[in-house]
Specification:
mainly alpha, 0% strand
Amino acid sequence: MVVALWLFGYANPLYADTTAELFAAINARLSYMQDVATYKALHELPVEDLPRETVVLQESKLAAAAAGLQADSVEAFFLAQIDIAKIIQYRHRAALQAGLEIQETPDLELVIRPALDALGVAITQLLAQRIAAAGQMTEENWDQFNDTVTAAYLEAADKRRLFQSLLSVTAQ
């Protein structure tokens, strides 16, 4: 009986509920967007980088499939995350233009993007583990998501949109 319970995810550390860690990773990824925006502003780069977005989406779909998630449902989540990341960047750049002091920022290619890539992989893995342990996200997870995802420049509608996209992520 213990072996059967372990095989189905009960008491299996690989299937622990990772909801809190997932939401923290999403928040960490979005929290980098101020550094991204500052770097782009200092180097006169546009906020929107369609080739980079294509790479991120392709990699997220591959990672999702490898983790046992339905790739299209994860793509919708990452699209929402990318859109919200751009919104945060635009809001931060507006604050910079309005006189917010520019802080030192790490290099985009050498520091920020590798960290964002690692967080993207972690988010996919945590999402797969969470779904294996507790099933798809439900509205019952909203309060925890809302309390955890607090990156600067996020508005209620942004958070709601991102959460709605999480609700549709499914296993293969």
